[in-house]
Structure formats: C-alpha cells, structure tokens
Amino acid sequence: MIRLTTQYTPAGTSYLVTGQGRPVVLIHGVGLNKHMWGGQIVGLAPHFQVIAYDMLGHGDSPRPDANGGLEAYAEQLRELLAHLNIASATVVGFSMGGLVARAFALEYPEHLDALVVLNSVFNRSPEQRARVIDRTRQAAEHGPDANAEEALSRWFSREYQAANPAQVAAIRQTLASNDPQGYLTTYELFATQDMYRADDLHSIQVPALIATGELDPGSTPQMAQQLAERMPRARHAVLPEQRHMMPVESPRLVNQLLLDFFQQANSLCNPAKGVLA
C-alpha cells in the first residue's frame, strides 16, 4: 500500500505526488477528490511520477471564483506544475476533470505532453442537457448530495455496489461533505461547458486518448468518438460493460488502457530499454 502525505502549493491546491519518471497528472470528477485515483496511483507509480490533486472547490483546495470559468481550473493546474518545477506533463482528466484537461490543453499547450479524457462529456443532446441542468437546480436547492442515490446508480454497476458497500458509502460521504458553493460553481460548469471552445479543439496537437464505458449513460461512446474526431492525434476507446466510475470499479482495466496509450506516445517511452520511462 502506498501511503502519501497531502501537500499544498502556495495558492493552496492540495495534492499528492509519488513515483519517478515522466509526470502524469490525474484530475478527478465533480463532487469527488484526489483520493478517487487510488487504483491508478498504485498501477502507474512504478512507471511515472504520479500527481493527483483536488480541483477548486473540492477536497482541501480553495473555492473557485464564481466567475472564473474553466480557465480558472486550468490556471490551478498550471500553478501546480510550476510549484513542482514541471515543464510539461501528461494530463488525465475524468468526467469534469476531462473538461479541465481540455481547457488546460487549449490554454497552456506548451505544458502538455499527452492528453487523456476519461468518461467525459461533449455535445450533449437537448435531452441530456435538460437532465443535467435539472440536477444543477437540485444541487442549488438541496446541496451536493441532492441526487446522490441517482448518481451512484449511474456511476456503478449493481454488482459492484453489492460487493463493495463500504467503498460506495465512502464516495457518497465524499459527495455529501463537499463545500456547497464550491460544488455548485463546479457543477454549473460541468452542466454547461461540454462544448467549451469546441471549434479550437483541432489545435490540440499532442497524442490524445478519449475513452469511456460502454454503459456510461452521461458520457457516452458517441461523445467520446465525436470528441476524438475534433483532435488530429486523438483516438477513442470504449471499454465493454463499464459504467461511469470505471477508474474505481475496474482499475486494472483502466490502468492497462492508460499504460498501452502511454507506451504508444513516443515521448513517454524509453526506446533504449523498450519499457515505459
């Protein structure tokens, strides 16, 4: 078991870091925190320097400015990399973290080696947009755990929920313990920014992987394909029978997907040894 100590940047961002090698940054989803990545930290740390952090409004990081937009979340990551003296990194974003990763790729391309977007949103249908806007209203009225039961049923398979009740309960507690204003500011962006700078996505020139689960109802395979088609060096992948929280429910499967992609991205390989740097 890897035991890590939470550290902080000068701006107050809470983060964990472990491992050696080229840096890989993990960005969690709305309502969650850096600890969702436990399975990926264990799987990736033997090969990379792995950094997981709490996005604005979550965990131990400060609240976002209500008017800062996705750019404020991208700036948070830039400040974290500067604090760690990292010139560029591979960025992996899950769900809302995928929107942040996209914003970072557009705002700070010079600091990006490769991009992974997991279970994220793009080009919602009117019906999908209406549902997420309704959930935003519920969160504004009743707080971060207003629709926790519904969320958990979307996120996890029934088999996983039955076999891992303590893990599911811990995630529900994480949702409930969010700062209400920080959560709402973030969720409003998650609900409305699926087409953030969509016409500029062609400018993302790094290798990119856009992946989701076959059974993810909110971050669909069609979304992953459409997003990948906007980026010249992107490919998309759909993991069979997986739902939204596949990094938590199936960490080995997701880790293998990530390691295969990293190995294919030349900048993350050590040709002399033929193994991941």
UniProtKB/TrEMBL annotation:
Q: Is-annotated flag, keyword Hydrolase?
A: yes
Name of protein: Alpha/beta hydrolase
Say yes or no: keyword Transcription regulation present.
no
Species of provenance? Halopseudomonas phragmitis
- Give any Pfam family that matches: Abhydrolase_1
**UniProt domain AB hydrolase-1: residue ranges:** 23-250
PANTHER family to which the protein is assigned, alphabetical: HYDROLASE, PUTATIVE (AFU_ORTHOLOGUE AFUA_2G14860)-RELATED, MONOACYLGLYCEROL LIPASE
Task: Provide the alphabetized UniProt keywords.
Answer: Hydrolase
Name the domain of life: Bacteria
